[in-house]
Amino acid sequence: MSKLSLYPMTLDGTDIQKKRQEIKEYFNNTFDLYEKVFELLKDDSVFYEKSEITRHPMIFYFGHTATFFVNKLINMKVISQRIDASFESIFAVGVDEMSWDDVDSKNYNWPEVSEVREYRKKVKDLVNDLIMNLELTLPITQDSAMWIIIMGIEHERIHIETSLVLHRQMPIELIKEVKDFVLCNHSDEAPVNSLIDIHSKEIKLGKTKEHNLYGWDNEYGEYKESLNDFQVSKFLVSNGEYMNFVKDGGYENKEFWDDEGKRFLDLSGLKYPVFWVLKNDKYMYRALSKIIPMPQDWPVEVNALEAEAFCRYKSKQDNKEYLLPSEAEDRAIYEQTNLKDIPNLHESGANINFNHYASSSPVNEFAFSISTSDMLYDVIGNVWQWSRTPIFGFKGFEVHEAYDDFSTPTFDDKHALILGSSWASSGNLIMKHSRYAFRKHFYQFAGFRYVVSKNTKNDEIDIYESDELISQYCEFQYGDDNFGVRNFALNMAEIASKFSINTNKALDLGCATGRATFELAKTFKKVDGVDFSARFIGVGVKLQESGFVAFHTNIEGDLTQNKKINLEELGYEKLVNKVSFYQGDACNLKPNFNSYDLIMATNLIDRLYNPMLFLQTIDERLNDDGILILTSPYTWQENSTKKEFWLGGYKDENGEEVRTIDNLKNILNNKFKLLHVEDVEFVIRETQRKYQHSIAEVSIWKKR
Amino acid sequence: MSKLSLYPMTLDGTDIQKKRQEIKEYFNNTFDLYEKVFELLKDDSVFYEKSEITRHPMIFYFGHTATFFVNKLINMKVISQRIDASFESIFAVGVDEMSWDDVDSKNYNWPEVSEVREYRKKVKDLVNDLIMNLELTLPITQDSAMWIIIMGIEHERIHIETSLVLHRQMPIELIKEVKDFVLCNHSDEAPVNSLIDIHSKEIKLGKTKEHNLYGWDNEYGEYKESLNDFQVSKFLVSNGEYMNFVKDGGYENKEFWDDEGKRFLDLSGLKYPVFWVLKNDKYMYRALSKIIPMPQDWPVEVNALEAEAFCRYKSKQDNKEYLLPSEAEDRAIYEQTNLKDIPNLHESGANINFNHYASSSPVNEFAFSISTSDMLYDVIGNVWQWSRTPIFGFKGFEVHEAYDDFSTPTFDDKHALILGSSWASSGNLIMKHSRYAFRKHFYQFAGFRYVVSKNTKNDEIDIYESDELISQYCEFQYGDDNFGVRNFALNMAEIASKFSINTNKALDLGCATGRATFELAKTFKKVDGVDFSARFIGVGVKLQESGFVAFHTNIEGDLTQNKKINLEELGYEKLVNKVSFYQGDACNLKPNFNSYDLIMATNLIDRLYNPMLFLQTIDERLNDDGILILTSPYTWQENSTKKEFWLGGYKDENGEEVRTIDNLKNILNNKFKLLHVEDVEFVIRETQRKYQHSIAEVSIWKKR
User: Fold this and answer.
1) How many angstroms separate the CA atoms of A407 and A392, rounded?
2) Model-level pTM?
3) pLDDT in tens, A122-144
């Protein structure tokens, strides 16, 4: 029997053709395995069901992983031809329960499953072709076109696991059994848990750019922590062990829950774990595609809030403080085993990579010897283990250009790391250095083990934006004026209000950190702020949700000044409900962004990969009498826009100079009347003594 | 017998250790061969002789190739420890007959030869160690640290050949024979030359960054030319063929010489080729280390001016136009042979790489069959062949950061390409894509062949600076004011004049394109402008020598505006002789830069690799009452200055913020009194609508 899930290939090697072959096999295995996951849905109608009200229906996920390849390849200019612009827009964003994802289904006209299957085939062919023909040198590095392919593969590996979680949350009658996904067929009484000593250690986390396995941005860099001795539970907490907490009324007793936990209890109304099923006063267990008698010795699956509550309960019982492990403690445990990383990881010794079961297994089945001659179980595999560490960027953290919002929106102190991987984890998910984090109320194939530990990370929460570019834009939009040049967002919102005819709904396209979006809400009833990058949108959303944003401004060298802005001072308290932020691609905007009285695109057109795509159809999104405002210093550059897509700044076939403003007139003339052109200066601070000082040309167009 | 000269290794491969070994062998072969070249000098006293009055003595060249490794490795921050700062300063620049090189020997205290030998050993050890231990991935690319090593090796390969030329120009009694350098021992009557047809072709020159052989900046990029059929001489022009020209009074008849040629004749007083020796009314021939009877069938060795004069003479004789070949025509010939590039080049078939002789050989010895079934001789090898093509940058030309002035100073329409390589050429010099160019009055192991051709390159001379950064600085220093901010160079020269006490001699350190250097000459009797990059100095020198400088200013995208400035308009006609430009490293300045009344370093300190080295001894170069002026926006960045060398913009060990100005006070306090501090704005134009707008802090210090 061929393996259900292959290991990922390494990035290095000496034989280019062989490497292409390895990538090809890994890609096709991933793509096929993903489709197999959707065989669990009883029939095609189930694709239009949601497993959670806050999520898109399953059809979205089915299309999403395929469009991801095309969108990233387009964005990184590896390819320039889309397969289906419509699919690549509606399936583009909306994966996470993020404030800026629009999951309201009435806004979408989902295609037929057969159409999406057809589309996936085309993507598969495209990627297979690229794998064999892209320029390739070894090792594959982050700036290689092949890196984007591997990013797409590993992205799909994540969705293999998270889609399985969503399927498991579906009503059981919508799910069918699939031959290849075999549940573990044995269980017993829960073993008695105990504590094992782990000796102190200097822990170094993070990997270098030269590492021979693919990594997400958050894995690179350096972090050090000195640990004291601590103790860790021999087993993951089993359903049996957790049962005491439930039976003792743990879900009713608020003293075990923190504020976030209490809110979760109120909203969910849960009295016991979500995958337990109370039937005739007996707890049954919801596996992937089946409800089975409670496997007492399998790990309990809970979210981080429940895991923390259990620890508080047990601390009270034993009069001893139990905690979830930290990331560094997990590494200390890992390093006491003789575990090896891919490709030398022996999957036979752990419940990972679909190698044993398509379910959890007894917490005393997979043993790992550790150097103290004890046995510790499920160091990796079975279910993920919630940690007490919120994910953060290591020293030297850098986003990858192709996926700049993979991690940064989670660096908010609210996303807890999960450790060790599950039976459904594969690819990057089972690598030593990988790091995944979720909001604490999320469900995964995740449970926990506990530690008794005096290790406290110096985790003073850094509320200040650590992202250099975002901070620069915060200063630009919310900071001080320089050289007597007035704040550009305020200026533009004022100009826009002056020229607008109707003031029902406005779109701030390329809204960045959202200042103009808020300002426009002084005039418009409703304003949508759309940006390509969730990193940028995060600022507007944070201002909306938390009432403040904190960032730093560069002074000189590494020295910075902390700044904090808040809704009251800005005078935006009453505007909060009038603005909405969304992630979106101006060159391939979702159809539901329409019916605007104003569309304002500030300093956007010379940063688009194909600005013509934006301009050609933008009129369709405007109401009668709608106003379009473009501003730009026309700094065309090849790393944003291939030369063939520049709107100006070149000589045409006759050797005539083409200026952008003239070309805009040609392009827009049929559909718009040019009302007004003016220059507006803006200044972006780099340091206390260095600034970008530009002169945008503002052109104001009225829909004909 | 082991080979005298090895082939260079390729940049690609699969076995890192093997590649290190190959680089090591190639390096040591190069380093040893270079030292062997100096064995030709009769004794150590000859090291202090000059072979040409405009050149440094030979000791300079002996030290130069070793210091090159250290200077480039320091500059690129591969190493941070110098071996001998003094050697690495005096042996650093002065290779070429460039206006900005100070070759006045009284300014130098040359070390003993034994000391330089000792120094070379240390460099050899260092480089051998780095070759084995530097981080290395394959293929080696331009951003690899190993590239700097290979650059050093290929730089020494060039000097192997050019030093041999210099030795040959030395009086014969100062040169001894060296066993390994064997002259060709046969010659005969000159063969009768004839013309061979070469058919039209579409020629593409230039190579891509992925090419598997090391290349200098000028080799990369793309250039296309459509050729018509042309004819080329079967043989290089032999001494015998050239003799007619000499005997017909060719050197006396001015009609065969252009203006540059006439000036050359006047200055040199030559009546026949420089390597011919008239003894008792008979022409003898100066070989490397011997004077021999005239080898009539060896190629004549002349400079480009003489080669052109011969062509005019022969054109008149035959009533047919003879020209030197163009670069594209040379490639057309090359492509009709079955020549292969390194590592598959068969050196047995050509007089190259020291493989046959340490001299020229008969022009009818090395035959190459070409596709027209004719034989053509010395397509490569024997002696270089002057072309009619001035070197220029291909489309996509970019300087390499580590050697940004390798080519650009030669893109002046005055440096003619030499084609095909000589018996003393090796390494990059014998690669298909390499491109070397010299001033037309220079001597190399170079002769010529002629063509009859109607091919005219569209060689409208582009006088406008093609170097983006240089143009940007020309605009900054000589262009328009923006945002009402006054020209920074004028401002600073004025401030400097106001604070100066004595006004004899000033140093403009980091002078860039030299505006402030000229301006200071309004106040000072003598002003030296020093910059790290010869690219920048070239502008000041051109203004001095040609009376004008032409550059372009970016408008939008690729569109630019041409600008031309001249001495008269600037009012600098009377100042020309008061200013001198030199290339120099502010962190390791030559001792002869001293006795100044003013040293002004504008926007320099935050671009130095180790600014402390500059500040610690700068007082020694100032006279009593001397003034030091520093200006900077303190934009410390790691790609200019490693963090450990920043003078400010960091937190110290106590967590206290260190500002640059405070640290400057600490560093300079003992030797200087701080007179004045003020802010001065400056604006650098990037495009018509985008500018860098900075605020320099100016601090003015008086020597205690």
Assistant:
1) 9
2) 0.75
3) 999 999 999 999 999 999 999 99
